[in-house]
């Protein structure tokens, strides 16, 4: 009986930790969103065809871009695990959605690797 309770408590703690981890990523990404939009609107970064930000100017904040890409990678990994696919495929699909939502003038990378402005 005691072992069953310990297992249930452990499982509950893991579920709560996973939810908190997901919330913290979502919170960090939401906090960064205005700065990311500003960098994209200034043409300093673009969205590549893998669903990640790519620096297009040395004036871009590389630490901000790195933090965003790290969180995106974690999100793509979690989604891939949940739906039984690869993080690369999740990122590529997200890249298509990001391109659709991009503002006029934002830099985007086409599937063939070429860059264009929307």
What does this structure look like?
With 118 residues, the protein is an alpha+beta fold. It has one domain (21-117). The protein has helices spanning 2-41, 62-83, 87-101, and strands at residues 45-47, 53-55, 107-109, 115-117. A 4-stranded mixed beta sheet has the order 2-1-3-4. Helix 1 (2-41) packs across helix 2 (62-83) and helix 2 crosses helix 3 (87-101).
Q: If helices are DSSP runs of H or I spanning 4 or more residues, what is the number of helices?
A: 3
Q: Shape from CA axes?
A: globular
Low-confidence stretches: 2-21
Oligomerization state of this entry?
single chain
Taking Cα atoms only, what radius of gyration do you get, to the nearest Å?
Answer: 18 Å
Q: Which strand order does the major sheet show?
A: 2-1-3-4
Secondary structure class reads alpha+beta
N-end to C-end Cα span: 62 Å
Keywords: Signal
Organism: Pseudodesulfovibrio portus
Pfam families: DUF1318
InterPro entries: YdbL (IPR008309)
Quickly describe the structure:
With 118 residues, this protein is an alpha+beta fold. Helices cover 65% and strands 10% of the residues.
Q: Helix and strand layout, with pairings?
A:
Elements lengths: L1 H40 L3 E3 L5 E3 L6 H22 L3 H15 L5 E3 L5 E3 L1
Helix pairs in contact: 1-2, 2-3
Pfam families: DUF1318 (PF07027)
Organism: Pseudodesulfovibrio portus
Keywords: Signal
